[in-house]
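thread: overnight batch results

M.L. [08:02]
morning all. the overnight job finished for the chain we discussed friday. pasting input first so we're all looking at the same thing
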Amino acid sequence: MQVQIEGGPAFAFAQVSLPPAGSVRVEAGAMATTRGDVQVTTSTRGGFMKGLRRSLGGESFFVNDFTSSTGGTVGVAAALPGDATLVPLAGDEILVQSGGWLASDPGVEVDSRWGGAKGFFSGAGLVLLRCSGQGDLLVAAYGGILVHTLAPGESMTVDTGHVVAFDATVRYTIRKAGSWKTTLLGGEGLVGEFTGPGRVWIQTRSTSDLIGWLDARLPRHNGSSS
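M.L. [08:03]
and the structure it wrote out:
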């Protein structure tokens, strides 16, 4: 996948060039522009009804496949401001939080039906996507993207709101950041304990923190009338 990323790291915009007979799979709603001979078809990850249920729940599992007979470009952008990076896959696999997957080559399988990480982001409304196969994967983040490479046995702790992706070779467990007092009063929630070998991609801002910040400032209506 030939990609040119512009506007980063704060407002990344990715231009995906499609060769003749080429195609790219894009997260629903992420397409911003097209140029040239480009057609689009819509499908779902994990079956129609599952895609519909997830979409109604606020996390779309629909995807758009853009194809070109003679060549063209597709411009894609994430919903939140931040950076994007291209991750090549060569038969390996990585786990990506659902809001981080932006686009990928047709040879990359994006599996939303995988249940191995069920409950990983409990309370954050997010799930993990297992991305595997051959080709390039375009990953987006809220804020900047940092990559940490863990040696075998080396560990790091990451707030779940800052996790973007990690290699499938990385082992992880989920726990509270500290005591219940720290969780409730200190503003720290769930964290992931990651142990190498492998890479961990994190974002410099937390989407869950953004939601909490906005929620505290939204007007409240008690439903009563005067």
